[in-house]
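Dear Dr. K.,

Following up on our conversation at the group meeting, I've run the structure prediction for ABC transporter substrate-binding protein from Microbacterium aquimaris. I'm pasting the input sequence below exactly as I used it, so you can double-check it against your construct before we proceed with anything downstream. Let me know if the numbering doesn't match what you have in your notebook.
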Amino acid sequence: MTHSTPRSARSLAAGLALSVAAIGLAACSADEAEPAADTTPAAPAAEAGSALDLSDVCPATVVMQQDWQPEAEHGAMYALVGDDYTIDNDIKSVTGSLIAQGVDTGVDVEVRPGGPNVNFQPVPALMYLDEDILLGAVNTDAAIVAAADQPTVAVTSQMTWSPQILMWDPASHDGATTIAEATADGAPVVTSGDVIPNMLVAQGIIDSSQIDLSYEGTAQRFVSDPSILQQGFATAEPYIYENEISEWGKPVGFQLLSEVGYTIYPEPLAVRADAIEEYGDCLAKLVPIMQQSQIDYLDDPADTNALIVDLVDTYQTGWTYSEGVADYSVEQQLALGIVEDDAASGVFGQFDPERMESILEEFVPFLIESGSISAADAEEISVDDLYTNEFIDPSISLD
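The predicted structure tokens came back this morning:
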């Protein structure tokens, strides 16, 4: 099985886009909402007033917005969905009791996918269009782009480092093990946005003649011309190309872009800037739940991965996702340190202030050059407006 619309097609530039792609939603009826087969006992209710009781502080339905199709990188959100869930195939969402650490928190959770399901609108735009969305997955660079008109504040990370990679054919690049080695022969770097290649040019790893922005999200170019380097995700493409693309069927070489300067926080959970005060009491309980949910999911992902695959099959948007890819993603998130405790504090989900400052300083020039933000808007951005550790539980860690 191959991905007809691979996640890697969601380029850095596309993730920062301010325009809306004219792609229609699937035409399904809201009457087709499907209840899950519920054969397990209901989770016990959280003790009233406890840290896991959200009924007195959070909305009756906590709406969470992802930036792409259902996949294992979003496991912490989907892991909260109780067995009583229903799938709305009209708006492409799943809703169920919000179950955390084995107890019913007293509210529901609704998880919405992004990408083609929302006409590729950026998550900050969605959060301002629909204020029912409490938490959205917003890359740090996307938050910088949206800061002027749709400011968001990240409240906890889920993945610590970006799973984005450049990949290549080891046989075509003399067994190269790094991007620098694989590009030393002048090979094209094929992406669908210019942030990655411009970052590499600025570091002297490639020169501008190697930039190729023609990536359209399929395996065709890579399979037919293995001399190129191509964007992808360490949590997906290496498995897919070896196991699900019969025309390739062998390992690829790759390096995480986080190792060569792409140091953003990928898909941290954020709220609208004006929601921090309104939902502060809710976030004080919900953020630690999200910290722990990611840890619990990676420790025991089977049921959540089954839900993710079921959602993909039900939504029928052209996106395919196998159990094998989901399992591989979990393995890679841990094996490659994509998910790990914050190095500065030892706390899972906490933001490093120095890293955040560095991200702002290093990425603003790329974003200005690409036209994603203006120099005037960039001058108004303060790093303190992009994130907060106020709601983090410092006792939560992977160790």
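Two things stood out to me. Residues 1-36 have pLDDT under 50 and may be disordered. The domain at 10-159+265-385 is CATH 3.40.190.10 (D-Maltodextrin-Binding Protein; domain 2).

Best regards,
J.T.
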